[in-house]
Fold:
Amino acid sequence: MSDIALPRRRPSYFSRLFEAYGQEIVVLTAIVVLFIVVGLVNPRFLSNTNLTSIFSGNAYIAVAAIGMAMVIISGHIDVSVGSLIGVLATIAGTLAVSGYPIWVAWTVPVLVGIAINTCLGALIAYMRIPSIVATLGMLSILKGGLISATGGTWITGMPPQFFIAQARLFGVPAPVYFMAILTIIVALWMRYSATGRSLYAVGGNAEAARATGLNPERTCVLAFALHGFFAGIAALLFATQLQVIQSTVPPNLELTVITAAVIGGVSILGGTGTVIGSTLAAVLFACIGSALIFLSVSAYWLRAVLGLLILATVLADMARRRRSLVR
Amino acid sequence: MTPLVALKGISKSFVGVRVLNSVDFDVRPGEVHALLGENGAGKSTLIKIIAGVHAPDAGEIIIGGQPAKFANPGQAVKAGIAIVYQELLLFPELSVAENIFLNHAPRLSWGGLDWAQMRDKSRALLDDLDSHHLDVDAKVGSLSVANRQRVEIAKALSQNARVVVMDEPTASLAEVDVQQLLAIVRRLRSRGVGIVYVSHKLPEIFALADRVSVLRDGNYVATRDIKDVTERSLVAMMVGRSIDQLFPKEEAQIGAPRLELRNVSHGKAVRDISFTLRAGEILGVAGLVGSGRTETALTIFGITPATAGEILIDGRPVQIRSPQQARDLGIAYVPEDRGLQGLVRPQTIAENISLTVLRRLSRAFIVDRGKEVTLARDFIKRLGIRARGPGQAARQLSGGNQQKVVLAKWLAAEPRILIMDEPTRGIDVGAKSEIHALMSKLAQSGLAILMISSELPEVLGMSDRVLVMNGGRIVAEIDRNDATPETVGAAMTLVRDQEAAA
Structure:
């Protein structure tokens, strides 16, 4: 019978690499091309000051996108993360202003983030509430609660040690370390640990995962709990990067974070993607935003460009899926 | 010999309905034990109890002589039991190697997953199954059904399974792949693995099984050595009565031409098709999967409208550019994939049946629910649909009864031409012969039926004439009296050789 089955030609190393990490390579290429083109048009784009502001000012988006990527890979979505970051940043600032030790102001928001999202994950996993519905509800609760509690005022007057995001090591801003180290740790964890792989399995086919002996409910709660942790870190970076904390977090932050995950190659249907991709995509956004300024294009175009990128990515994803079905 | 797994007096109820009633079953090392029964007989539940998905209400599971209790599927896997489910529970986005080793992957010294070893071991397992062509790095989503099944079997072997349960493994395989699968099963058996083989296809069971057990309506009927049973006695055990004729084709008055195709083409899938279908006639279409049979049906039904040629209904040329037009011309199409194209599964039986005739049942945009339910009651009685009533959700029915609902939906539209694509695929013997009897009755009432089927006995048993397709063309037209497995089979494969030579 083996004479019927013709041996398939093994694809080359590069086509393999591209099949496995296609989207990551595309995003990385886009970043490099962007740097070269915009740098040629306006060399100040490549200045140290600008690069620092691109990376350190947007690292919190990349960190939040790590958690978002995990949630989407495991087959869910979270539209409440923007409000959660706002709430956690406000908690951090309030604690710091009220005179609590700095380590308390740093750790409490992270723990609160984990706690809130663990409840959210349990609600989704065990009560079978679709994640889009549960997190929409959470979005309203958090956003409403935040505005009522703060009255929309900004928090100022934190002690100087509080501003961890403004620290530098070897001339590189701290948020860049957070972004890079967390991305690498999570990427390795998701590749080499059984728990990490179970996120892909559950997101790809929950019933098959159950039959294999995995526990899809527990995996869902875990993904959300970790997502809460990263939202906490993101909130810290956001809260400590400027001298003030705006209780009105950047509007549509959750959409930016989801977009980063999707453009980075995380399929919105779950089961595929990497956090390397989501971090690269977050960096790409930051670069595009800055490039638009240097090219004297209105910053309002940024959202439109991101929207186009989403559609292009999803179309490419569909085309890839269709092609792989034909084989 | 101590059985690898023995079930004693297993009972199970779901929401008050008893689906298994004191069932005994066992598997010995190095045997294929076939499990037979109509849909709804309790086979799936029994498998899920062996797999640890459900816990029995009463009875014992004994593994290698020791009583065992499975709290979850993971424990059954640890006890050496692997299930190859019909719907192949794999992860489409993950690689072959990872699918095989998910949840029991080899580890590196620091605890990380050992990808290199995972790939090597997968290679070895697949080579062992004579699947040298399967790439361990390919995404499972890109594989054919037959190859996915091999991945499932490799996965079972990677867990050192001593018992492999296969739930209708050949239901969606082409003939070549079926033969390869049977070879793999025999190979497993010779290695001392105990195999539970669930299938509707009696020839496979006779080719493979050592023993066979039959379930009926949740009750254990009997276990027999394969040499002590015949096809007829097995069917009688399954349905509780003897079915005199598997294909109750009755003579029907054949009338005027209803549907005529003249040189109809659609792209490369449908090439130059010409035939005539008459009132009262059942015209069988045989051919391998991918030979253009379904594509022809879709062209007639206007889903992929003809790009060339002429279609005549009652001798008059017609244009069919959409399914709506086809329906208005009196054509009905019962598709191959019930779930995908035929049935709205969450909706009730009544709502499914009335879909084709909503306009007729409504007054000023409002559907008359009373008329809808009456219509459904009528069909439930006429087609013998086993259901609690018109209000039951379609997804709760067994495969055969779902197929009857799809059929009812189209019969409600009172068609003059009925196209049936694989009318009895995945349906048990009892429901099968009921659907066949129904087809005969419909033909007798003057309906013209075009029946596409991959099951040769069905084609030969039910058709007045047989068309054989290959490569998008009709390669033979054989009269009922001349149609034998040899003549039809030869036509199915002969042309392929010629084309290869050309």
